[in-house]
Amino acid sequence: MNDAFRMLFDQVNSGVVWVQRNGVVRYANKAAVQMTPVMLGQAMMDPVAERTVKAAGQDMLKLPFQFELTTQEAHPDVIRAVVIPAPVGQDLMVVLNNVSQERWYSQALENLIGYIDAEMAVPIETLTEKLPQAAQLLHSQGALGDIQTMLAEANALSTKLSKLHDLVEVFGESAIHRDERIMLPDLLKQSLNEVMPQAQARNVTIAVTGTDDDMPAVYGSMHWLSKAMSEYLEQSVRSAQPGGVIALTLQASGTRVLIRARNQGLFVSNHERRNAFVPFGVGDSTKPGDSRRGIGLALAQRILEQHGGSVRIEDEFDSVDFVMEIPAGAPVSQDAQLSVEQAQRYAHDMAQLMARSMARKTQGQTPASPAAPPSAKSPS
Amino acid sequence: MTQRILIVEDQPDICKLIRMTLEFSDFEIHEANDGESGLNMARAVSPHVMLLDVMMPGLLDGYQVCTRIKQDPAMKHIKVIMLTARGQASDLEAGQAAGADAYLVKPFSPLELIDRVEAMAALVA
Predict the structure, then answer these.
(1) Helix-, strand-, coil-residue percentages of chain A, each rounded to 5
(2) Chain B residues with CB inside 8 Å of A219's CB?
């Protein structure tokens, strides 16, 4: 095997074992050695791997051939292995990936979500409820600088923890209640009021158009869409250049409503774009010591997804647009339970409807023939 | 004279049940499955009574369709009965603000529906 291949395989995270057709190992990278025992000049030591490679070398298997190994540990990891032809010659390669490690990361994330939801929700709510009482106490006993500072810090903590909990909640199992009628201009104005201090602090002007009365209504959770809108506006303001102008437009397009925050003269790198949608990945100031001021667009994106919408970043020649898209009107869904209940009401009243129809017929009127009720869908 | 009824309802099962109920009387029935087509059909057929679902996908929901009908001199005579699964006081108020003539909460009684429609149609005729 030449040096170029060796250098390439030493850089990858997957385990790579290069074997001759008789099963003898010619090369194994570091990742492979960590996953399964191998020695150069010998067959792979794992019996399953040895048998599989020999069978492949004898053309008994169709390549690529996938199988599983386990590590030689007290709590073994599962290794997903694939036998493929080597890029040159008649040799074979076994590519190894630790599936358990991947599962560990997803499990760890689930654990984090579960922990935050279970352990932090109540303390946050308690703190939030007690803060106004602390403020009243402050007024009655005279202003003390330390208490004021503490209060401000507690408020900041409460805000951050609440956002964290919001994120956990929307990524968790709790379904978003989705039938409140929401007029987006009203929602936008409310969120603008929240984000205005941040915009003023950065000397950013927000010019709003399209908030007329003809905008379609959207249906969903006022509580969650309000949070999504605030997060989205915060991110737009955070990304704007100090002293810049954000052109915010609200527009109905097809069956959707678009909210577009255009930052003139802004450039967003792929790195920033990617990080904007990863929880906790944005908000870092370039100045050391400045705190994170948000959790990016992950919260907004998740909430919008649960409403059938989306949040995205679009590049133009000389501007960057933060675009929020929401389906206009009610969600397209068949309320099976309601259909069943309505069919039951029809069945219940049908005898009286028929009797009424017959009575009219005898009086010389002309009723139409009744039909059988449609087969309502079962609740899913 | 046969009275024209327009059903604007996005759920096919519910729409069919309404049609079946109304077929016990002598109406000319039209259907639309969203707010925009409902409004266009109202202009085209000028129904005596319109049964209008509140929550529909698209650019116009039931309240907005009702508002436009009641603001249009050519259509404001149309009697509008709102149909909805939302029966809270705020929803009823929103219906009144839009100019609705009546409000039925799903699941509704077919007998009540046909009585309401006949009464409304008699007012227009």
Answers:
(1) 45, 20, 35
(2) 55, 61
Residue of B nearest to A370 (CA): B24
Task: Quote the CA–CA distance of B103 and A332 in Å, as a whole number.
Answer: 22
Gap between the Cα atoms of A72 and A46, Å rounded: 9
Q: How far off is chain B from A309, nearest CA to CA, in Å? A: 13
At residue A35, the pLDDT reads 86
Residues A154 and A70 in one domain: no
Which of A291, A6, A24 minimizes the C-alpha distance to A163?
A291
Q: What is the CATH number of the domain that holds A272?
A: 3.30.565.10
Q: What is the per-residue pLDDT across A231-266, written as a single tens digit (0 to 9) for each?
A: 899 888 888 888 889 999 999 988 899 999 998 777
**By the 8 A CB rule, do A324 and A311 touch?**
yes
Query: Could you tell me if residue A142 is inside a domain?
Result: yes
CA-based nearest residue in chain B for residue A346:
B110
Identify the domain containing residue A227 by its residue range. Answer: 180-327
Q: Which domains does chain B have, with CATH numbers?
A: 3-124 (3.40.50.2300)
Q: From the CA of A338, how many Å to the nearest CA of chain B? A: 7
Q: What is the ipTM of this complex?
A: 0.81
Read off the pTM.
0.63
A181 to chain B: which residues are within 8 Å by CB?
A: 55, 61, 63, 94
Nearest to A374 among B17, B58, B63 (CB): B17
My answer on whether A146 and A284 are in the same domain is: no
Question: Rounded to a whole number, what is the distance in Å from the CA of B79 to chain A's nearest CA?
Answer: 22
Counted domains in chain A? 4
* Structure-token pair, residue A318: 């000389």
Closest residue of B to A366, CA-based?
A: B26
Residues A251 and A316 in one domain: yes
On whether both A157 and A195 belong to a single domain, the answer is: no
Provide residues of B within 8 Å CB-CB of chain A: 10-11, 13-14, 16-17, 20-21, 23-26, 34-35, 55-61, 63-64, 85-86, 94, 106-111, 114
> Phi and psi (nearest 5°) for B61?
-95, 180
